[in-house]
Every structure is written in structure tokens, then in C-alpha cells.
Amino acid sequence: MQYRRLGNAGLKVSTIAFGGWINFGSDTISEHIARQTISAAYESGINYFDLADIYANGRAEKQMGQILSQYPRHSLVIATKVFWPMSDEVNDRGLSRKHIMESIAKSLRRLQTDYVDLYFCHRPDPNTPLLETARAMDDLVHQGKVLYWGTSEWSGAQISEVLELCARYNLYPPQVEQPNYSLLNRQRVETEIVPVTVPGGMGLVVFSPLAQGMLTGKYDDGIPDDSRFARESWAKERFMTEANVAKVRQLAPIAAELGITRGQLALAWALRQPGISSAIIGATRPEQVRENVIASEVTLSDEVAAQIQTLVTTE
User: Fold this and answer.
1) Checking DSSP bridges between strand 12-14 and strand 203-206, what pairing results, if any?
2) By CB count within 10 A, which of 31, 32, 68, 104 is most buried?
């Protein structure tokens, strides 16, 4: 496993991170398999585990917290998030000071820890002044409940604005942005986000680097009955196009030449891009984790990167 600094911070995260979105806290996998999968991640060198309070409405945090409690806390980088409604209560949502302070207390209890390493603002909140959010996050850092805070799916303009506010008022700035990024979803991150985050000293930890499984090649011949696209129409509608299927098929000989899978190729490509500290994977079986972490050790040549670039930009 390789490790990288989170932007210009001293914190180092595994280049492959483990995410608890969708699968954890649900009936998708049994408790036994969940523990085996987390164990495979930890034993493979993954130190970064990514969650959010909204995942299974808190149950993902609770399940992951119970499993991670068996490991030394200093060996873990635990991340969670705040923003989405957690109940019907009018203040139980957004990025107000009230919601942030109450949400971190609940997340820490579910995670069975005194602090989280990373705390993300899961989306921007148009109803709360940005300075209020930044001051609340700064207070959490001073209290030791959060070590670094970040943003997720914020626009370049919003990130730039909060960095300027934090500099003006001497607040701890966000250290990380978590965007959706993959070979099939590139433009916004490359043209809007990276030009702000890299000069701002922020790291990027990207989610859906395999485009919900599209880049593994599992949909080359249609949609299997037990696949994510079969269960979740939004994912299918976003990625399952004739053009994408053709592109993914053309990645097969490139991966074969390197002796790796297309999933490993896609992860290695993402980790090659400027400003990226880590790529978050999801897994429901230990073998999926072990297969994905191989990408951490894959180095793509300039020639291969150019070949991939030409392929994915072809309409």
C-alpha cells in the first residue's frame, strides 16, 4: 500500500480508501462478511475508512465503528460527513452551527471514538452563511473532536470562497475535497476543482472511481440480475450508455497488456492525476478489497496514460 499526504497537511492516507456507502448498515452483507471485509482492508494497509451520518441513517457509522474498535485508534483515519436530513425536524439538516455541533456528537457516539480525523460538509448549504459553517468547523478542530475538515461536491467557486474566508478570519481552512471522479466523469474536477484545491493546499479523495462498477467491465454484455445497476436505476441511467460500454471494452487490451484488471487500471489512472490523495472503493467481499488494493502499486507510463486519454475522450 502507498500513502500520500492530504494536500499540504502532515496527515498521510492510504491511496486506496474503504467506503461504507450503500453496503454497510444495510442488509446487503452479513455482519460476518462485513467484519471479514474490513479485516481484509486493514490487513492490506488501508488506513482511511470513509463514512457519513446519512449512510443507512446512522447504521453504517454504528456498524463500522463497532468493527473498527478492535484496531488501535492511531492506526486509523476515520472520516464522516454532515449535511443531509437525519429526521423530519427542521434543524436536523444542513450546515448550521446547531446541526453541525449536534451531528458530530451523534456520529462520535455511533463510531465509538473521541474524534474523527476528517469531517466533511457533505454538500454546500445555500441556507447557512458560509462563515457560520467555517467557524463551527474551526471550533470543532479547537475542541479536538475533528482533526481536519473538508468539503464534498462543492463547486470551485464555493471552495475558493471558504478558503478566502478562513484566511481572512484566521480559521482552520478545509484540508480536503471529496468529489465524484472517474475515467467516465472527469471534466468538472479537472477544469473547476483541481485549479482551486491544488493551489489551496487541499487534497482530493475521490469517490466512485470505478463509476459504480462500470469500469470493471461487468456490464460489457448487459446488466446482471445481481448487479448494482439492476438494483439502482439512477446508477444505470448515469453510466450505462453505448459510448461508455464501448470505451470500457477498449480498456480491456490495455489492462491485459499490463497484467491487471480494468478496475485496477481505472484506479491506477485516477491516482495518477494531479492533486489526488486517495480513491475510495466500496466492497462487499474480502476478495474485492484485495483485488482493488493492487492498484496502489501500479504505475502507468506516460505512453499508457496517453493511450487511455485518447480512448476516453473519443466520442
Assistant:
1) unpaired
2) 104
Structure confidence by residue, pLDDT tens digits, 260-276: 999 999 999 999 999 99
More confident residue, 19 or 226: 19
List, in order of start, the domains of the chain with CATH numbers: 3-211+271-299 (3.20.20.100)
CB under 8 Å to 115, separation ≥6 — which residues?
A: 108, 144, 145, 146, 147
pLDDT band, very low/low/confident/very high, at 311 (cuts 50, 70, 90): confident
Please name which of 1, 5, 3 lies closest in space to residue 175, comparing C-alpha atoms.
5
pTM (2 d.p.):
0.92
Residues 6+ away with beta carbon under 8 Å from 12: 3, 4, 5, 6
Q: How far is CA 91 from CA 83, 140, 152, 216, 273, in A?
A: 11, 19, 20, 41, 39
Enter the C-alpha cell of residue 191.
Answer: 477544469
Coil, helix or strand at residue 159: helix
Structural contact between residues 3 and 12, judged by C-beta atoms closer than 8 angstroms: yes
User: Which residues are identified as catalytic?
Assistant: 55
The dihedral through the CA atoms of 217, 221, 222, 223 has a sign that is: negative
- Can you tell me the distance from the alpha carbon of 69 to that of 76, in angstroms, rounded to the nearest whole number? 10
Looking at the predicted structure, is the pLDDT value of residue 246 above 90? no
Is 107 within 8 Å of 61 (Cβ atoms)?
Answer: yes
Nearest-angstrom CA–CA distance, 166 and 292: 37
Radius of gyration of the chain (CA): 19
DSSP structure string for 162-218? HHHHHHHHT-PPP-EEE-B-BTTB-HHIIIIIHHHHTTTT-EEEEB-TTGGGGGGTT
